[in-house]
Amino acid sequence: MVEAKSNTALILDSKQELVGVISLVDIKQNIDQTAQYPTHSSKFQRTLKEICTADVVSAYEDESVTEALCRMEARGLFLLPVVARENPRQVLGVLERSRIGLAANLAITQAALLPYSDKALLPEVTTSTTVPQEFIETSEQPVLVNPSLSSESLSSENGALSLHQHLTQELAELADKTEPSSEEVICKVG
Are 97 and 189 in contact (CB under 8 A)? Predict the structure, then answer.
């Protein structure tokens, strides 16, 4: 997590199914408890699966981006796993609040600049019902880790998860708007 500069990681089992979410705060609390109560040093040897948050807040692939953002805002979350409705442990991707805001702002800016620019200089604004892949790829992707790892070995065993599916129609519709709406203000939080 430290190497990936991520404060949150998804914990997946051997079948690549969601077990929970762990944050640097969870790991630090476990370490602090061990330091405070040395007789309970076995707590430091607990696996990530044992200290992660198993009751994960998630979004479904057919859910609106606005609903997902509201859920993230209400709980102070920076990322939200996107799961299959028929199998809530199957991770399809991850919504990152900052990346959604960036995608919305880029689409709005492109739409606003298009009438005043040379089409050869600006990329074409997408009007399809999906978000262009360049808006959702990120180098600071959430980390996926093996749930049997101890918190000590987390930094040496990690991977990355990229969004496997495009978002919903709502972000594409934002590209067609030039006037901010209350939904767009939510998207600008980053």
Answer: yes
| Nearest CA among 20, 15, 4, 51 for reference residue 152 | 51
pLDDT in tens, 98-141: 888 888 888 888 888 888 776 555 555 444 334 444 444 333 44
DSSP 166: -
Closest-CA residue to 48 (of 71, 30, 62, 64)? 30
Q: Which residues pair with 91 in a beta bridge?
A: 83
- Is pTM beyond 0.70 here? no
Q: Is 188 helix (H, G, I), strand (E, B) or coil?
A: coil
Q: Which domains does the chain have, with CATH numbers?
A: 8-187 (3.10.580.10)
37: alpha, beta or left? (left if phi > 0; alpha if psi -120 to 50): beta
Q: What is the pLDDT of residues 77-87, one digit of tens each?
A: 888 999 999 99
CB-CB contact of 136 with 79 (8 Å):
no
Between CA 175 and CA 131 the distance in angstroms is: 10
Question: Considering Cα of 56, then 62, then 65, then 70, what sign does the dihedral take?
Answer: negative
DSSP letter at 165 equals S
